[in-house]
């Protein structure tokens, strides 16, 4: 079974625009595209993403999505492989 990779878009970027990247990574990962939470502080966004994304999933993002992915990985510690 392939590992899950969750891709998070940037501010104002529709997740569908990351589809070409998701397709390119599909041979290695089970890629999931997520929309960013629409409102709230960074902490509230992280809480929402933490509920949506299973533990031990890989995280990647573009711009704001990348910053949230890094923050979520730090929050999860060993429960996030990268």
Q: Which residues form runs of ≥5 with pLDDT under 50?
A: none
Total strands: the figure is 3
Please provide the ordered H/E string of secondary-structure elements.
Answer: EHEHEH
Largest sheet: 3 strands, parallel
Fraction of helical residues? 25-40%
What's the Cα radius of gyration? 12 Å
Count of individual domains: 1
Number of helices: 3
Structural class given helices, strands, pairing? alpha/beta
Report strand order across the widest sheet: 2-1-3
Distance between the termini: 18 Å
What features would you describe in this structure?
This protein is an alpha/beta fold. It has one domain (4-79). Helix content is 38%, strand content 16%. The protein has 3 helices and 3 strands. The protein has helices at 19-25, 42-52, 64-76, and strands spanning 4-8, 30-33, 58-61. A 3-stranded parallel β-sheet has the order 2-1-3. The longest helix has 13 residues, at 64-76. It starts with a strand and ends in a 6-residue tail after the last helix. The model has no long low-confidence stretch (mean pLDDT 94).
Note the main attributes of this structure.
alpha/beta; 3-stranded parallel beta sheet
What would you say about this model in short?
By secondary structure, this protein is of the alpha/beta class.
Q: Strands, helices and their partners?
A:
Elements: E1 4-8, H1 19-25, E2 30-33, H2 42-52, E3 58-61, H3 64-76
Parallel strand pairs: 1-2, 1-3
